[in-house]
């Protein structure tokens, strides 16, 4: 049985109005040791971490701890490089009724230690790196 959009929005605290148009995505961090993920039980390890993150959202709410998100992420990412997006998301094929996007940027990239990957808007098989 599918859940209607209004039912999904009312699960947020505070609820999102039915007139809202757009995305409401929240990142969750799953941390695991490389040796666990690439080991024989790697799939199970990854699945357990994802399950724990989903249960946190369900139990504590989508916005719980939001005041610390930037601080926690910056602390965790110290000395690391991030890649956001994927050419597989096909962001240039999305049309909300006003035509294909002319340019897609990932606004959550902050600093010099991150870059984004998207498929090319005009070149089949091409990749945009920002």
From TrEMBL:
InterPro entries: CAT-like_dom_sf, Plant_metabolite_acyltrans. Keywords: Acyltransferase, Transferase. This is Uncharacterized protein. GO terms for molecular function: acyltransferase activity, transferring groups other than amino-acyl groups. It holds the Pfam family Transferase. The keyword Transferase applies.
């Amino acid at each position: 049985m599918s859940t209607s959009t209004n039912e999904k929005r009312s699960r947020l605290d505070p609820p999102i109005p039915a007139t809202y148009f757009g995305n409401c995505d929240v990142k969750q961090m799953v941390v695991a040791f490389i040796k666990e993920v690439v080991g024989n039980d790697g799939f199970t390890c990854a699945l357990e971490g994802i399950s724990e993150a989903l249960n946190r959202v369900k139990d504590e709410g989508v916005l719980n701890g939001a005041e610390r998100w930037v601080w926690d992420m910056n602390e965790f990412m110290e000395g690391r490089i991030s890649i956001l997006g994927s050419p597989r998301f096909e962001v240039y094929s999305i049309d909300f009724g006003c035509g294909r996007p002319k340019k897609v940027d990932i606004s959550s990239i902050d600093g010099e230690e991150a870059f984004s990957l998207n498929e090319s808007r005009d070149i089949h098989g091409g990749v945009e790196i920002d």
